[in-house]
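Q: Hi! Curious about what Response regulator transcription factor looks like structurally. Here's the sequence.
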Amino acid sequence: MSGYARALVVDDLAASRDWLERALALAFPGIAVESAASVAEALARIDPPPPLALVDLGLPDGSGVRVIEELGRRGATVTIVATVFDDDAHLFPALRAGAQGYVLKDQPPEALAAMLQGIAAGQPPLSPSIARRLLQHFRPPAPEPDAPALTPRETEVLRLTAKGLTVQEVADLLGLSRHTAGGYLKDIYRKLSVSTRAEAALEAARRGLA
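A: Let's find out. The predicted structure is below.
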């Protein structure tokens, strides 16, 4: 573990810094830990760059992504995000900036320490929910089901309905009884799984009928 004799913790909350420092001490006994509570303070402490950095994203003077980017440019630091944010809007910018792991603050320091120890074996520290999110992101999208087929008459009824015509007006234009036009409209709603004229109009627009 001599490669991680020094680490930087970037977090504006004292309790979170203590949690991260404890995890680092468990993972790498004897490690020297420096801390910073803001982007500016962190940038002032990365010359020379630390071998390891744990960086929160929500800092009082900006995003921790800026710190990650600067550490990435220097190319000598394994940078791990430690945060409460588990959404794509935080995850992917951090990874693009150069973060090599992403852990959530929802676990005891012992669990984080075990993940940090995996770095030496080439295992990126990832909270389970983050790993699932990454897998989901890169999974091919499920094919959309085929659009339900409408008969030519149903298509015409849908087109006229989408233009705002009433059932009686549709019936008059197509030479149908009001009852028959209403039956066509009911079948259209069932096939398209809609329940209002507005939803039917949207589906007509998707089909190029409106």
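A: A fun detail: Strands lie at 6-10, 32-36, 52-55, 58-59, 62-63, 78-83, 101-104.
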